[in-house]
Amino acid sequence: MPDRPPVPTRPAERPTSADPPTDGPADDDWATVSGSRRWAATGPVNRWSRRRAELSAAGVELTDLTDTNPTHFGLGHPGLPEVLARAARSSGRYDPDPRGPRPARLALSERYGGAPDDYWLTSSTSEAYSWLFALSADPGQTVAAPAPGYPLIEPLAHHAGLTVQTYPSHYLHPYGWWLDRERFAAVAAQPGTGLVTVVSPGNPTGAYLDAAERQHVLEVCRRLRLPLIADEVFAPHALGRTPPQRWGGETGTVVWALDGLSKSLCAPGVKLAWIRLSGPARLKPALAQGLDRVADAFLPVATVTAAALPGLLELVDQQVDSTRRRLTWNLAQAKAVLSGDRIRLRQVDGGWIGLLDVSGPGPGDLALALLERHHLAVHPGWFYDLAEPGCLALSLLPEPDRMADHCRSLRRALESVEEAG
Ligand SMILES: Cc1ncc(COP(=O)(O)O)c(C=O)c1O
Asked: Could you tell me which of 61, 161, 333, 334 has the fewest CB atoms within 10 Å of its CB?
């Protein structure tokens, strides 16, 4: 077992069985109540987030360049309320099913492939990760996850008592990202590894694993008999090229593919995601039974939402088109404004984030300097395990006018930070 932070209790002050019984803890006794090591492992809030919260609390108006919530930027299909309302009128009866109502899963299989029984509905992709972590590995085991990568994988793994071991991707400008195949195989082969995750396209890299990398990942998982979670929530948002093949439908190794409406329909508030199981036919029934058991303990999806899913899926293509138009336009604006001798935008193939590199001498913590001196909130690259000190992650979702303002403000601030040193 790896070292863990101390349990957030003071054991010496906790009652023992030898202490006389009391009527229960007084309010101020809660400081001594038992707490899990997993909770302690979440650690303190980082300096950038703390400073941002302090400035907001002091009434300072910050320009937010971090926001990737599509509902804050007028993205979302106008037909959505009517589909939900129609479903509400016809969904009075409740027949629980651990995988979610069959008509919803039938609609998924017709759109994405496989059979209705290959799908489980969840309220979010995060929930899907949690279920699969619980199903696939024992506390103390390790999840292999990409770095740079989606920051929620680590806390979700910790909640399940698992630790994360990262495998790297590298960036070469202007070509893009490539998976470090050797490191990937080495991390997967470590004795404690219980399952593997890939995120394609990645967050924040926006990079799809290409056909050869995909094959490598599948082959390593097959050889080591490791289940694979493939998070493809950003898959339809390819910028400038046809999206590569999806991860469902594999027969050689076990793949749990994750997707949902929060990105495809820009509808995170609808709270509907799904898991698709693919793999060798002889393994699928036992795996399905296992996940049924986990799902049956939660039954998280509302009947109304599930009943709306077939209608909501009909809106997805239109929504993806308009989101992609927004992303493409904003990316072009960002490239035009945020490029120069010392500034460059990295290659983006998909997703909702642009990564910016600012080189040369500057303040030790660029994102903190932008926050404190210019009241610009832009995520530092280290939020995502990007080691370069001048790396920033920029949301590509704002309305075009607002995006143009953001890019110009950021450019001015970077020039001024550069001059001040
Ligand atoms: C890669 C990735 N997967 C999953 C999610 C979460 O999706 P959901 O809202 O379905 O939990 C996000 C959210 O930003 C994400 O970036």
From this structure: 61
CA distance 298 to 97: 10
pLDDT of residue 3: 37
Taking the C-alpha atoms of residue 46 and residue 328, their distance in angstroms, rounded to an integer, is: 32
In the chain, the percentage of residues whose pLDDT exceeds 90 is 82
- Cα of 155 vs centre of ligand 1, distance in Å, is 13
pTM, two decimals, is 0.91
CA distance 350 to 325: 12
- In terms of DSSP bridges, do strands 255-260 and 163-172 run parallel, antiparallel, or are they unpaired? unpaired
The pLDDT score that the predictor gives to residue 416 is 87
How many Å apart are CA 194 and CA 197, to the nearest integer?
Answer: 10
Look at ligand 1, atom 4, and give the residue with the nearest C-alpha.
125
Under 8 Å CB-to-CB from 227, ≥6 apart: which residues?
132, 136, 195, 196, 221, 253, 254, 255, 256, 287
CA dihedral 32, 35, 37, 43 (to 10 degrees): -80
What whole-number distance in Å separates Cα of residue 75 and Cα of residue 101? Answer: 28
Amino acid symbol at 367: A
Q: What is the CA(153)–ligand 1 centre distance, in A?
A: 10
126 C-alpha vs ligand 1 centroid, how far in Å? Answer: 7
pLDDT in tens, 293-321: 999 999 999 999 999 999 999 999 999 99
CA distance 283 to 293: 16
The structural domains of the chain, ordered by start, are 47-73+316-420 (3.90.1150.10), 80-315 (3.40.640.10)
Degrees, nearest 5: CA angle 373-376-379? 115
